[in-house]
TrEMBL record:
Name of the protein this chain belongs to: N4-(Beta-N-acetylglucosaminyl)-L-asparaginase
Active site: 202
CDD domains for this protein: Glycosylasparaginase
Superkingdom, taxonomy of origin: Bacteria
Sites annotated Cleavage: 201-202
UniProt-listed Pfam families: Asparaginase_2
One GO CC term on file: cytoplasm
Chain positions covered by the region annotation Disordered: 28-55
Binding residues annotated for substrate, in chain numbering: 230-233, 253-256
Gene Ontology molecular-function annotations: hydrolase activity, acting on carbon-nitrogen (but not peptide) bonds, in linear amides
Length: 340
């Protein structure tokens, strides 16, 4: 039996129905008859998308021809953008001569190598690890977090425990070269992060596959001689990396604290959503930092690609470069910068 209050409520709603007008339209998404009209443009980005006009591509921060080649090899075989970016950034993670990523990365001020990484796929899924020790490939652990847990981020001892349970091998990450540099630093123990202008640090990578899907990855050992427990922007979804398959993707490099304060990569993608080109979006995101911070001795760079395969890059200081691979060609170019 319907009580009086519910009866009056239902009656009021029924009285409103004649005043609402509906038009039957055919959905532009499903092709089925829909009792509600679809506003112009709504859902247009949900239509199946093909590759960009230029075909599949890989783009990364800094001079990374070997990393790009590994990613491109995946795409050439018809692989996914997700597989491509993971394969790509695993290259510097395993390179002891790259002292800002993975094996051989510079330690924190206590002599421990701690690694951060994140990954995003075309569906908006994401995985991240922070403050991870003893594992050479944090990017693969981040992917496992994304695919095998209900979580987005695992940190520290918990991330290590998970990695070992997944079969990752526990290894020593501190190389003799990195240890020697750290011991030399201990003589003064002055922690003054300076602009990383002429050498590589974080690697961020974006890829578009033959289906037009976009994925991204970001991995780093963080600032050299950082405070124990410090985590930068690289593993933070929306800061070091963000992907929206309807719009594009972006990643960041440089002083992570400044990127986190502006949600930098998310900002770049949202600016592209509003109509900016990838180049314009990267420039505007960098200017947000310049307008609020003393930027003489800091470096931040942004890299972006949109759904059409157009790319852009911009940094505060000169010296930031990017590596683009497409149409069987790889090219390293210098990004534009605020300071000349």
């Amino acid at each position: 039996m319907v009580n009086r209050r519910r009866f009056l409520t239902l009656g009021s709603l029924a009285g409103l129905l004649p005043s609402l007008s509906f038009s039957r339209t055919r959905s532009t998404i499903t092709g089925n008859s829909d009792p509600l009209s679809v506003p112009q443009g709504l859902g247009q980005n949900l239509l199946p998308a093909g590759p960009p006009p230029s075909g599949p591509l890989v783009i990364s921060t800094w001079k990374q021809p070997k990393a790009n080649a590994a990613a491109q090899a995946v795409l050439d075989k018809g692989g996914s953008a997700l597989d491509a970016v993971e394969a790509g950034v695993r290259i510097p993670e395993a390179d002891p001569d790259d002292m800002s990523v993975g094996y051989g990365g510079r330690p924190d001020r206590d002599g421990h190598v701690t690694l951060d990484a994140c990954i995003m796929d075309e569906k908006g899924n994401a995985g991240s690890v922070t403050f991870l020790e003893h594992i050479m490939h944090p990017i693969s652990v981040a992917r496992a977090v994304m695919e095998k847990t209900p979580h987005v981020m695992l940190s520290g001892e918990g991330a290590l425990q998970f990695a070992l349970a997944q079969g990752f091998k526990k290894e020593k990450m501190l190389t003799a070269k990195a240890e020697k540099e750290w011991k030399e630093w201990l003589k003064t123990a002055q922690y003054k992060p300076i602009a990383n202008i002429e050498r590589h640090d974080t690697i961020g990578m974006l890829a578009i596959d033959a289906k037009g899907n976009i994925s991204g990855a970001c991995t780093t050992s963080g600032l050299a001689y950082k405070m124990r427990g410090r985590v930068g922007d690289s593993p933070i979804i929306g800061a070091g990396l963000f992907v929206d398959n309807e719009i594009g993707g972006a990643c960041a490099t440089g002083l992570g604290e400044l990127v986190m304060r502006t949600c930098g990569s998310f900002l770049v993608v949202e600016l592209m959503r509003q109509g900016r080109t990838p180049q314009q979006a990267c420039e505007e995101a960098a200017l947000r930092i310049v307008n609020k911070q003393e930027f003489k001795d800091i470096q931040v760079g942004f890299l972006a690609v949109n759904k059409q395969g157009e790319h852009g890059a911009f940094s505060i200081q000169p010296g930031f470069n990017i590596t683009l691979s497409k149409n069987n060609r790889t090219e390293v170019t210098d990004a534009k910068s605020y300071l000349k």
